[in-house]
Amino acid sequence: MTEQPEKVSVQLKYRDVEKTFSASPEDAWLLLGKFFSQFLPSFEVASKLLLSVDLQQLVKDCEGLIAFSQEGANLLVSKSRLTDNETLLLWLLAAYLGHKLGIMDSDAVSKEELQAKLGKSGKITSTRLGELVKSDLITKTADEKFRVTTFGVVQMQKDFLSKIKAKTNA
């Protein structure tokens, strides 16, 4: 006897429009997209303006730069070949990626941890972190830690990662 493929049941309601369907996960995803494009054209327009991160592409982009071990995140590039800001951004990107992949508990890193990883004084670390916050690449959390913003991740993918790879031959 052959096993029936798994099906996903979806019920959508938007204002007075209601749609219910049951299909394979792939078909359900396509039907969901069709619903949004037919009934919510403004959603399609707005989605072009929303910053989003393709996690699979980010993993590919970080190959050779970031790796994870039992001890946590690791940078595979020498910080001597990177600027302080690139180093801090890579560490925060590693925390983001580790958290998204379920490897790390949090995507936020304390100033003290970042200072230790950067290997610079507290004053230099604070100055660099302040520059990155001003440029909206990172943000300071309520508990005084730092995390990369969605804008920061997108900018890393768009500009920084290829430059870092070129400098380090990663």
Describe the structure.
- This protein has two domains: 8-47, no CATH class; 55-168, Winged helix-like DNA-binding domain superfamily/Winged helix DNA-binding domain (Arc Repressor Mutant, subunit A, Orthogonal Bundle).
- The protein contains seven helices and seven strands.
- The protein has helices spanning 25-39, 41-47, 55-62, 84-100, 111-118, 122-134, 150-168, and strands spanning 8-14, 17-23, 66-69, 72-75, 109-110, 138-140, 145-148.
- The protein has a three-stranded antiparallel β-sheet.
- α4 packs across α6 and α5 (111-118) crosses α6 (122-134).
- The N and C termini lie far apart (50 Å).
- The relative contact order is 0.12.
- The model has no long low-confidence stretch (mean pLDDT 88).
How are the SSEs placed, and which strands pair?
Elements: E1 8-14, E2 17-23, H1 25-39, H2 41-47, H3 55-62, E3 66-69, E4 72-75, H4 84-100, E5 109-110, H5 111-118, H6 122-134, E6 138-140, E7 145-148, H7 150-168
Antiparallel strand pairs: 1-2, 3-4, 5-7, 6-7
Order of strands, main sheet, comes to 5-7-6
Overall SS class: alpha+beta
- The CATH architecture term of the largest domain is Orthogonal Bundle
Q: In DSSP terms, counting alpha (H) and pi (I) runs of 4 or more, how many helices?
A: 7
CATH class of the largest domain: Mainly Alpha
Query: What does the overall shape look like?
Result: elongated
Percent helix among the residues? 40-55%
CA gyration radius, whole angstroms: 21 Å
**Separation of termini?**
50 Å
Which regions have little confidence, pLDDT < 50, spanning 5+ residues? none
Number of strands: 7
Largest beta-sheet characterization: 3 strands, antiparallel
CATH fold label of the largest domain: Arc Repressor Mutant, subunit A
Sheet-strand content, in percent, reads 15-25%
